[in-house]
Specification:
single chain; about 350 residues; alpha/beta; Isopropylmalate Dehydrogenase; 10-stranded mixed β-sheet; two-stranded antiparallel ribbon; globular; disordered N terminus
Length: about 350
């Protein structure tokens, strides 16, 4: 299912290797990226990697943090897999993730969150998808210092972007046979910006998806209800900042950011990424969990299958998913999940089950 454009406009490409831009990232990025490459190679995924740099790794090579050639490569090939990139806190360069989303107009951020066998948590049957508007809100980065000690930050909302993400969320939910779309908002206070967000969602629902279950909740009440019982929700639709915060909150239901994948999808391009940080404190130690990036790679394979007519990609993605699910169920886990395996060892465990 191509969630970017109508099926009639899809260009079916060669069933041979798909060229995918690989951005290893910073910190633990190169280690988890190498593990994922090994697993995809063992599964015989039809991928040809085109490696480019971003973040501190790019700076260390005398380049911009987001080099023009990296952006050009993603635009040329349409798909990228990205490891975590470092973002300085309170100073320095702006987030590489935010820059990529803006410059490539990757307006839909998608984070599936589901319980995993072998990863015990407070809740055992979580199955959520967070859909986040990726280009506007407070993350527009429009800030200014009014006078000494006083700064402002502007929250931006447009009907175009609010309508576009609502339509994407409903279409995704319908195609994936999900149960319900819930909008979290704060329109009782931010009557213009969040008011526009829910109004656009209402209009899209009424005009195009009227029979699909839909509800709205003020975000603070919604979060309270969610931590009481996340199973009452299914697909969550949120503006940018709320989506960022709530998606990390939801990751806590299933074991943390190390077991949650992410995708950023636009009309033409898509970037799949691990949503956790670059963890410089453990970089080079060989203990990082590659699962989040591996799960993102499975999302990437599904996307290639949907958009390029290559059913083998989706089939391979299903095999990889079954293999890492089996590894976790067998207790083959990295230390962050209570196990003892290192990065390469976990990759070996998944590859063993692929071949078994």
């Amino acid at each position: 299912m191509d969630l970017r454009r109508p099926v009639s406009s899809i260009t079916v490409r060669s069933m041979k290797a798909h060229r995918v831009v690989l951005i290893p990232g910073d910190g633990i990025g190169p280690e988890v990226t190498e593990a994922v490459k090994r697993i995809l190679a063992a599964a015989e995924a039809p991928i040809e990697w085109v490696q480019h740099l971003a973040g501190l790794a790019a700076l260390a090579n005398g380049k911009d943090v987001l080099p023009p050639e990296t952006l050009a490569a993603v635009r040329e090939h349409g798909v990228a897999l990205k490891g975590p990139c470092t973002t300085p806190v309170g100073k320095g360069f702006s987030s590489i993730n935010v820059q990529l989303r803006k410059k490539l107009n990757l307006y839909a951020a998608v984070r599936p969150v589901r319980s995993l066998e072998g990863v015990p948590t407070r809740f055992s049957n979580v199955d959520l998808v967070i859909v986040r508007e990726n280009t506007e809100g407070l993350y527009s980065g429009i800030e200014s210092e009014v006078t000494t000690g006083v700064v402002t930050s502007m929250k931006v909302a447009t009907e175009t972007a609010c309508t576009r993400i609502a339509r994407w969320a409903f279409r995704y939910s319908q195609q994936r046979r999900r149960r319900k779309v819930t909008v979290f908002h704060k329109a009782n206070i931010m009557k213009l910006t969040d008011g526009m967000f829910i109004r656009c969602a209402q209009q899209v629902h009424e005009k195009e998806f009227g029979s699909f279950p839909y509800q709205e909740l003020i975000i603070d009440a919604g979060c309270m209800r969610m931590v009481q019982d996340p199973t009452q929700f299914d697909v969550l639709l949120l503006e940018n900042l709320y989506g960022d915060v709530v998606s990390d909150l939801c990751a806590g239901f299933v074991g943390g950011l190390g077991v949650v994948p992410g995708a950023n999808i636009g009309e033409e391009d898509a970037v799949f990424e691990a949503v956790h940080g670059s963890a410089p404190d453990i970089a080079g130690k060989g203990i990082a969990n590659p699962l989040a990036l591996l799960m993102s790679a499975v999302m990437m394979l599904n996307h290639l299958g949907d958009t390029r007519g290559d059913t083998s990609c989706r089939q391979i993605g299903q095999r990889i998913k079954a293999a890492y699910n089996c590894a976790l169920a067998d207790g083959q886990k990295t230390s962050d999940l209570g196990g003892s395996l290192g990065t390469a060892q976990f990759a070996d465990a998944v590859i063993e089950r692929l071949r078994g």
